[in-house]
């Protein structure tokens, strides 16, 4: 990208209320069959138009065709039984009834490739596509087959790589793996989590990214955040390993969080998607608040590597609030672009 500070979102955006119940995760579709397929495409068109209207530079599908960022991908795989459920503790934080891995996992068909082709055909803007990361996938399942987190993660990494290669061929510019689990299982991240991620991204020529956050603004997450103290230093545990990895971009939470921004210095050399929008609050940021976060981040990342972004997905927010936040992100980035161009000597 030639434009400085290209903006994007971390992933999900709210869905229209005619598609499913709004402001809710795992919301059921309101339509079926062909009507649902058509409605999903319409939702893709709308989410794209809203991003473009707000001036977002790198667009996404807003995850309009997925019920959930992890589950929807797993649903299409062989080896996972969704009728056989066990209760597990997700990210050491909240209990959930999850499907069971009952046999060897495999990808039997492309999952999001048709959606990516559809989005690609609608726009010339750079497109970012999010996939769940291997460690976050295994954390959302009960494993009765491999009985090894590492082995299952490795199998998922191979499957993700098949999907990622086809998304790249469909014209996706950035493939992002969502790994909120990286903020919880530090030892595993350093032992095999980053290696599994690199396996998922193997051979890709497009940009690759990892998104590591403190989660959606749901109660289980906001309760957990209250236990983390004044300084959130989770990134410190994993950034040195990520810095040495082949993953090119890191998407992280910065705005309204207690993350000391100097931790960004630990991933020097990477492109950094700086979360400058709080997804756990209905208050729409002012452009100046966004700019203040970006200005702080600029102390630790070069301007040509800074990508203003949201802290996490905005699926649980109202559409109106999400639109306001997209506008604020664009306007805040523009403030900093102007500052940077004023600092630069005229050519
Ligand atoms: Zn996130």
Automatic annotation (TrEMBL):
GO terms for biological process: methionine biosynthetic process; methylation. It comes from the Bacteria. Transmembrane segments: none annotated. One of its GO terms (molecular function) is 5-methyltetrahydropteroyltriglutamate-homocysteine S-methyltransferase activity. Its cofactor is Zn(2+). Pfam families: Meth_synt_2. This is 5-methyltetrahydropteroyltriglutamate--homocysteine methyltransferase. PANTHER family: 5-METHYLTETRAHYDROPTEROYLTRIGLUTAMATE--HOMOCYSTEINE METHYLTRANSFERASE. It is an enzyme of class 2 (transferase). Its EC number is 2.1.1.14. Residues 5-329 form the Cobalamin-independent methionine synthase MetE C-terminal/archaeal domain. Keywords: Metal-binding, Methyltransferase, Transferase, Zinc. Gene3D superfamilies: 3.20.20.210. The lineage of its organism: Bacteria, Pseudomonadati, Pseudomonadota, Alphaproteobacteria, Rhodospirillales.
């Amino acid at each position: 990208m030639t434009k400085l500070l290209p903006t994007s979102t971390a992933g999900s955006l709210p869905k229209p209320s005619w598609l499913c119940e709004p402001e809710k995760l795992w919301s059921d579709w309101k339509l079926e069959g062909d009507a649902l397929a058509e409605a999903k495409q319409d939702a893709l068109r709308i989410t794209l138009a809203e991003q473009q209207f707000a001036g977002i530079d790198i667009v996404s599908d807003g995850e309009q065709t997925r019920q959930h960022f992890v589950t929807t991908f797993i649903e299409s795989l062989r080896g996972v039984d969704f009728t056989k459920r066990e209760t597990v503790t997700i990210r050491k934080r909240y209990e959930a009834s999850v499907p069971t891995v009952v046999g060897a996992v495999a990808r039997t068909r492309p999952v999001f490739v048709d959606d990516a082709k559809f989005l690609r055909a609608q726009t010339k803007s750079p497109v970012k596509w999010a996939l769940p990361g291997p460690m976050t996938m295994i954390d959302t399942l009960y494993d009765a087959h491999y009985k090894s987190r590492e082995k299952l993660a490795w199998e998922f990494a191979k499957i993700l790589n098949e999907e990622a290669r086809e998304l790249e061929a469909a014209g996706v510019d950035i493939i992002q793996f969502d790994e909120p689990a990286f903020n919880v299982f530090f030892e595993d991240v350093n032992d095999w989590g980053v290696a599994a991620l690199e396996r998922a991204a193997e051979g890709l020529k497009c940009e690759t990214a990892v998104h590591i956050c403190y989660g959606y603004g749901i109660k289980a997450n906001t309760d957990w955040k209250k236990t983390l103290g004044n300084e959130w230093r989770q990134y410190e545990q994993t950034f040195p390993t990520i810095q040495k990895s082949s993953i090119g971009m890191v998407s992280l939470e910065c705005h309204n969080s207690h993350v000391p921004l100097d931790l960004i210095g630990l991933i020097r050399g990477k492109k950094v998607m700086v979360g400058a929008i709080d997804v756990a609050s209905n208050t729409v940021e002012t452009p100046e608040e966004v700019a203040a976060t970006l200005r702080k981040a600029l102390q630790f990342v070069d301007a040509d590597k800074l990508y203003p972004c949201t802290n996490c997905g905005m699926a649980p927010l109202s559409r109106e609030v999400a639109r306001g936040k997209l506008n604020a992100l664009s306007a805040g980035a523009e403030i900093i672009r102007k500052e940077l161009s004023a600092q630069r000597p005229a050519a």
